[in-house]
Structure to design on (460 residues):
């Protein structure tokens, strides 16, 4: 079999489909691209709809992206544009089996079951749809829009930080006048931005950081004024967010930037220019005095959290990430063999079961999956998420030597959120799916056949 034939097989196209040409494929691809843009925009502004625009529809808007994803998946399947992936097949088989065990051996609530199953049956396959439809140009366009949005988003976060929780900008989901902020430090709350909860601010500005670093290393792909303004916004939001997770994520990304030099030393001057430019902006912003209070609050939050959880390495990495994964695996024997049932570990699922919005199983993602699905199925899902991450990580590292650093920079965020992100929470789920989809798509050259994860990692 020729290399071309192998490639067609890997992306799920037969010879007649592959030879149809771009004129027949483009209209369908254009529709799918527009749909993905809608998914992206709903992720960013879903919270704004639930808080300010349509508060009476706050509950159904929680899953507003689901119909979009379902429609695009069906459309792609109808036109045979969805790539065949062993990971999607395995995930569907595992989920269907878990649906049956949930209904007959678990909690038995069909609505809670479907709410939990939608995560793996709809959103996980959507990763591969994005990866097959979008190309590198699309990923960069999305990055430009993200930096444009980052500027007013940073202003909004600042307003929320300095405003009381009773202010309109801090209004909660459904118009809740008690506010959407979350406990921070020194009487200040963590701002949610346009999102329903503060994790949206962390997720969005983590993605902003990906593109800020990328565009500083690839000058000329975005207006310098926008890049500078977005960089200033990111620098300001780190203390304004009162989030150790955001600071930790940006630090990891900076390390990833330095790691590019191990594969491509020619990037040295661009790396130095980027870091020096960002450092200058940090110094200039510090002279304004605008961040004096946020920095004081941010440091207080670090000290308080360190006293109870340990420092960043011990608390954020050790306890939340590595410790949580270890506890989930070692404690799997305490759960029922087939778990408590899909959806039971989500806040919405617990509310549907009459227990209120609480963690009936566990707050940690891996512990939740094993608790819902049992040790064998839960660990299988964890393994798929880890394997997908590992494959694209290896491929991203190899791309650096070819001068392509976009996959590597997106990986710096994907490696943190995709294997371990709390998919029970809709906003975190959305960012996890978006980031991995963008990562896979970033390997695709414009106007060339799109690749899935298997063909990416098997290229010669």
């Amino acid at each position: 079999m020729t290399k071309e034939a192998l490639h067609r097989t890997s992306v799920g196209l037969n010879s007649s489909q592959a030879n149809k040409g771009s004129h027949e494929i483009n209209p369908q691809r254009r529709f799918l691209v527009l749909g993905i843009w809608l998914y992206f925009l709903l992720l960013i502004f879903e919270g704004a709809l639930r808080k300010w625009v349509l508060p009476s529809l706050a509950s159904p808007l929680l899953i507003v992206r689901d119909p979009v994803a379902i429609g695009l998946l069906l459309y792609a399947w109808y036109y045979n544009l969805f790539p065949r992936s062993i990971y999607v097949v395995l995930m569907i088989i595992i989920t269907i089996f878990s649906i049956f065990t949930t209904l007959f051996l678990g909690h038995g609530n069909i609505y809670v079951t479907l709410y939990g199953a939608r995560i793996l049956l709809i959103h996980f396959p959507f990763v591969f749809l994005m990866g097959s439809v979008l190309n590198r140009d699309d990923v960069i366009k999305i990055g430009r829009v993200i930096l444009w949005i980052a500027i007013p988003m940073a202003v909004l976060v600042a307003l929320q930080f300095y405003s009381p929780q009773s202010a309109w900008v801090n209004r909660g989901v459904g118009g809740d006048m008690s506010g959407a902020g979350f406990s921070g430090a020194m009487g200040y709350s963590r701002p949610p931005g346009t999102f329903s909860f503060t994790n949206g601010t962390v997720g969005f500005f983590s993605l902003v950081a990906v593109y800020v670093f990328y565009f500083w290393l690839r000058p000329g792909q975005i207006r310098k004024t926008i890049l500078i303004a977005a960089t200033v916004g990111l620098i300001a939001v780190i203390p304004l967010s009162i989030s150790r997770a955001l600071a930790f994520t940006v630090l990891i990304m900076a390390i990833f930037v330095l790691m590019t030099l191990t594969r491509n030393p020619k990037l040295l001057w661009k790396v130095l220019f980027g870091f020096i430019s960002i450092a200058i902006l940090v110094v200039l912003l510090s002279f304004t005095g605008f961040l004096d209070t946020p920095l004081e609050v941010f440091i207080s939050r670090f000290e308080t959290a360190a006293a109870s959880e340990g420092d960043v390495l011990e608390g954020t990495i050790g306890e939340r990430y590595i410790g949580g994964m270890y506890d989930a695996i070692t404690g799997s024997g305490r759960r029922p063999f087939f778990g408590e049932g899909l959806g039971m570990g989500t806040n919405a699922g617990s509310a549907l079961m009459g227990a209120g919005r609480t963690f009936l199983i566990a707050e940690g993602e891996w512990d939740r999956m094993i608790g819902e699905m049992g040790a064998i199925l839960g660990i299988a899902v964890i393994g798929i998420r880890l394997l997908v991450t590992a494959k694209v990580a290896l491929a991203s590292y190899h791309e650096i030597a070819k001068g392509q650093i976009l996959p590597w920079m997106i990986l710096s965020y994907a490696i943190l959120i995709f294997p371990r992100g709390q998919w029970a929470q809709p906003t975190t789920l959305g960012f996890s799916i978006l980031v991995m989809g963008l990562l896979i798509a970033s390997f695709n050259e414009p106007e060339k056949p799109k690749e899935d994860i298997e063909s990416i990692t098997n290229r010669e």
Q: What stands out?
A: The first strand starts at residue 182 and ends at 185. The chain has one domain: 3-457. Residues 3-457 form one domain.
